[in-house]
Amino acid sequence: MRRICFGSNQWIIVFLILSFTFAGCAPTPAPTPEPTQAPVPTKPPAEVVLTMGSWRVEDVEQMNRILAKFHERYPSITVKYDPTTAPEYDAALRAQLESGAGPDVFYLRSYSVSRTLYEKGYLAPLDDLPGLMANFTPEMRAPWATEAGKPYGVPFIATSHGIYYNADLFKQLNISIPNTWPELLTAAQTIKNAGHIPFANATADTWTVAELMFMNIAPNFVGGREGRMEYLSGKRCFNDPNMLAVFQALKDLEPFLPPNQSVVTYSDSQQLFLQGKAAMFLDGSWDIPFFESSKPSFAWSIFAPPPPVGQPSYLTFHLDAGMGLNAASLHKEEARLFLEWMSTQEFAAMLGNELPGFFPMHSQSPTLQNEQANTLLSLNQGRGTDVRLAWEKLRDGSPDAYSLIMDGAVAVLNDKQQPQEAADALQTGLAQWFAPAQACGK
After folding, report:
1. CATH class given for the domain over 160-317+387-439
2. CA dihedral in degrees (338, 344, 347, 351; nearest 10)?
3. Which CATH architecture has domain 48-158+319-374?
4. How far is it, in rounded angstroms, from Cα 153 to Cα 74?
5. β partners of residue 290
6. Stretch 234-260: mean pLDDT, rounded?
7. In Å, how far are 8, 100, 291, 388, 391 from 210, measured between CA atoms?
8. Under 8 Å between Cβ of 124 and 152
9. Burial class (CB in 10 A: 0-12, 13-18, 19+), 192
10. 135 pLDDT exceeds 60?
11. Strand blocks (E) in 326-429
12. Closest by alpha carbon to 274, among 263, 264, 284, 287?
């Protein structure tokens, strides 16, 4: 056998070749794993409490149920309902806003009162609020918007006016629902002759004379919204035959009010009706829950105030309350979420059913479960509707139409003024500052 000999350099080359050969056959070492990153904890949303100002102390339980539904949708946001009595609300709210301690969101009166708050910078504009433009018509937004249509409030509550009546007594006395004003007076005389008080209304609480009586029946005598617009444009004076007819209609009711009615309060009137002592009550839809909870011993319902003979029928359907956002709120983002939710159908349905007689103003009306609320709402069908006569523009100066109407109507019912004198005082007072009233007779 021939021996193969290698030199020193050759051995080095062989060694390198063998090293690479055996290295290719060795298992590849596993990569060193990177250290696992600890999960970053997600910070829960900060808990926010929004305060809501309101003039409805009667609605605490119902509003809390509505607000609880919003809390389910947004668990980090709680809305605290913090009402003030209605007579004190406007002054209390203004004081809070002026001191910088106002609620985050709050009830807004329609037209002049809320517009003044916006012009003074207390209300945030809402023209970019999702859902507001899509879910409410311009007519529903108008009471909480500028002349140019820029909204500063979400339409919230509409209320309707009518005449509550004791259905059992009407049946007993064989009285049909009156279709004309003379028929209403005839029914009242029949009730009085039978020993009952025809109407529970009275004048001790003077606001009730303006809102429950005068502005309840006024649309039928002035011609609804179209007639009201003629006063606002100067085509009519405020002591014209139509306005005089409203004061005269109140005078027609005077013999049918409770004895000593000048000392009978709103609460007294409610009890006269609930106890069956008075057969009728000119009132608003907001009393439906109160009357139902009082469980009177008789069947009752509501009918529309009837018009004069040969005239079309109108009903006061008042755009009553909006919801505004405090421009100084520290929680505007959360408050806007709440206002956006108010524009939804979920909110509309809860409002209409938790507070029967308070009607949502959404373009798509929800189904209401309350029989009396549906009865009152159905009265809108086939009738013209309008807001309370004194609200739009007529409260912007002094003396305002609301005060003049209230004082005149109370005076007429207490035999201190004749209807013509009350109408003349309304025209003279408004002519001091309202340009259309100044030019209407020229």
Report:
1. alpha beta
2. 120
3. 3-Layer(aba) Sandwich (3.40)
4. 21
5. none
6. 98
7. 125, 33, 22, 10, 11
8. yes
9. middle
10. yes
11. 384-386
12. 287
Give the helix/strand (H/E) hosting 13.
helix 8-25
Strand partners, 314: 384
- Residues 303, 297: Cα–Cα separation, whole Å: 19
Give the residue among 358, 334, 324, 356 at the shortest CA–CA distance from 53: 324
Query: Distance between CA atoms of 230 and 240, rounded to whole angstroms?
Result: 11
State yes or no: pLDDT of 114 exceeds 70: yes
Euclidean distance between CA atoms 35 and 222, whole angstroms? 84
Let me know: does 151 contact 144? Beta carbons within 8 Å: yes
Question: In this model, does residue 12 exceed pLDDT 50?
Answer: no
Which value, to the nearest 10 degrees, does the dihedral of the CA atoms of residues 280, 281, 284, 286 take?
Answer: -90
Kind and range of the H or E run holding 222: helix 215-222
- How do residues 376-404 score in pLDDT, each as one tens digit? 999 999 999 999 999 999 999 999 999 99
- What does the block give as tokens for 75? 């668990």
Contact present, 307 and 181 (Cβ < 8 Å): yes
| pLDDT for res 40 | 52
* 361-394 b/e (C-beta count within 10 Å ≥ 16 → b): bbeeebebebebbeebbebeeebbbbbbbbbbeb
Q: Do 123 and 324 contact (CB within 8 A), yes or no?
A: yes
Is-contact 179 379, C-beta < 8 A?
Answer: no
pLDDT at 28: 46
The token pair at 263 is 């000392």
Q: Where are the domains of the chain?
A: 48-158+319-374, 160-317+387-439
Provide the pLDDT confidence category of residue 167 given band limits of 50, 70 and 90.
Answer: very high
Helix (H) or strand (E) holding 197: strand 197-199
Mean pLDDT, the chain, whole residue set: 91
- Coil, helix or strand at residue 80: strand
Average of per-residue pLDDT across 47-56: 97
Residues 74-110 have pLDDT tens digits of 999 999 999 999 989 999 999 999 999 999 999 999 9
Nearest CA to 150 among 170, 124, 174, 171? Answer: 124
3-state SS, residue 283: strand
Q: What predicted TM-score, i.e. pTM, was given to this entire model?
A: 0.86
